[in-house]
């Protein structure tokens, strides 16, 4: 659906050049929610703005729905852009227009008839839950309501793709979750392809199918969110995930208390239905090893449950090896930590 080929974007001239994106390749499938995460200055905004050519790449190609946008003249580009909606961190609504008029705006631009506009805007108001607010002005709305208007406006021209530029960064956690739920709902309902950029792992974990980690203008890691989240390889990815649950001091203390001769510390990951099975208790009973839990998490990645336990196995070294092998045979991921 979207393909970025060797995309480079530099700002400035001569000795003042900043390369925001450096020969970046990326592909997003139809109907998926694809997240791009990175620290400040990594190139996220530049990347998302290059997809609809709000920002012209210095070199490389942008393909959307089989069309090379970088090769089009202004008129053809305008037509193709209608397939790409966008929402923004600070909503970018017209402050002097009502909710209704903000949503109608893109339809008026393409000379849609008054009756079609009315039908479409009312449908969209219902979709985003703002039926009772159509005559209000942006200043009379909460942040979450403003973003709902932004979403409705972006959907007015029935796009194939929705770009979300830090769409929840200005919202509190509860409102963030309600907006993420709405994005998930419209993704399913319209098979809409969504690309979002964020610096919050929580956003990726809640709704994305796949994720790319961007660092210094390049993708350093990408894949299914379950893979990247549970088995991060790059230090930047690890930083984001650790930021979600930083209890490294507690963990260090527990590791220091570990007797290296008769114990071993393991990180055990359960995914999907395995999360709720009593695999660990059966294994320790059958092998006779004891265990202490040093850390534990149970949560979901989109709709997949997962659990992660750091445990210290204690006992006869051969029994510990058998216990570890049994966990692996039953489909758990096991990583030796010390
Ligand atoms: N218009 C511009 N002129 C010059 N340099 C720019 C411009 N826009 C971005 N940059 C530079 O390009 C790099 C990438 O910026 P970008 O805004 O894409 O990163 P980001 O990951 O979105 O950061 P943030 O999360 O802080 O918004 C940075 O070094 C930034 O200073």
From TrEMBL:
Q: Name one Pfam family in it.
A: NIL
Gene3D superfamilies annotated for this entry? 3.30.70.260, P-loop containing nucleotide triphosphate hydrolases (3.40.50.300)
Coiled-coil spans in chain: none
Gene Ontology MF, one: ATP binding
| PROSITE patterns reported in the protein's UniProt record | ABC_TRANSPORTER_1 (PS00211), ABC_TRANSPORTER_2 (PS50893)
Write the record's keywords in alphabetical order, separated by commas: Amino-acid transport, ATP-binding, Cell membrane, Membrane, Nucleotide-binding, Translocase, Transport
Limits of the ABC transporter domain: 2-241
**Name of this chain's protein:** D-methionine transport system ATP-binding protein
